[in-house]
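A quick word before the example. In earlier lectures we treated sequence and structure as two separate objects. From today on, think of them as two lines of the same record. Here is Fe-S cluster-binding protein, possible ferredoxin written that way.
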Amino acid sequence: MAKKITLEPIESQASIKTNDHLLAVLLQEKLDVQWKCGGRGRCATCHIFIQSGEESLSPKSKREVQTLELISNSQKNSRLACQARVLGEGVVVELPVGMYLSEIDNLDTLIGKKIQEHILHPLNGTVLVQEGMMITRSMVNQLKEALVQIDRVLGII
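And the structure line, produced from the sequence above:
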């Protein structure tokens, strides 16, 4: 049976099948959520906050707890959408502010532009580039280097 989920701050409601991961509803709603580790709970790219309804989700696994401990802006109500399964009604999800560093290919297009929202590190959620900053070629090179290191850690390359 489908459960209703509320997404904040976009004030949207969505349905999700019982026992599906919260990531499924975020992707279904075409939100800019990545899952760089492939849904294994090893990165911060699907980090969310549960505003209410924590009891309607599966318990945190040991892996999820370990990953959340590494995320810089993790709070008591933090979850990884790829790990949290919906078991009941009343879940309200808050999406963190910022976008995660993702693709090397599109970084060059940012040179000379002001960033509209923070660019966050995919493993720990730290701010790599602050909102409002102008992106320079040296920043792009640093971001590319960070992506290569992240891919090594996650076993992608």
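Notice the following. The domain at 99-154 is CATH 3.90.105 (Molybdopterin biosynthesis moea protein, domain 2). We will return to this example when we discuss secondary structure assignment.
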